[in-house]
Amino acid sequence: MNTMEIASKLVELCRQGKNTEALETLYADDVVSVEAGVPPGMEREAKGLDAVKGKGKWWEDNHEVHSATVTGPWPHDDRFVVGFQIDVTHKPSGQRMKMDEVGLYQVRDGKIVREEFFYDMSA
Fold first, then answer.
1. CB-side exposure of 86: number of CA atoms within 13 Å?
2. How far apart are CA 6 and CA 81, in angstroms?
3. Which contiguous run of DSSP H or E holds residue 50?
4. pLDDT tens digits for 46-90?
5. What does the angle CA 20 – CA 75 – CA 82 come to, to the nearest 5 degrees?
6. Angle CA(54)–CA(100)–CA(102) in degrees, nearest 5?
7. pTM of the complete model
8. What's the burial of 25, exposed, middle or buried (CB within 10 Å: 0-12/13-18/19+)?
9. How far apart are CA 89 and CA 97, in angstroms?
């Protein structure tokens, strides 16, 4: 698949809530995922598919998603961006919040090899 095909498939799977399927089918084994902030008890950068899956499991275990909107993708050569707007409750604190973030993805050899998330940690 080319970059736009991967981007479109990622958006489709995210809209369906199939994030695990997206990881298993679209991501390289040596993928790197970088957060804008450091998740509690984790590193800012997750290296390797298993580490990225672990980060996803942490998210699911600690958050209740009430609604999510996925926008894009917007391609640029071997990269693309996707927008995420999420209404979520942090389970441990009970704090409900609206998140607005952008993911920048890089593709090589038909797989996502890097993702970086941008969001305001002060909100």
1. 18
2. 12
3. helix 49-62
4. 999 999 999 889 989 999 999 999 999 999 999 999 999 999 999
5. 45
6. 65
7. 0.92
8. middle
9. 6
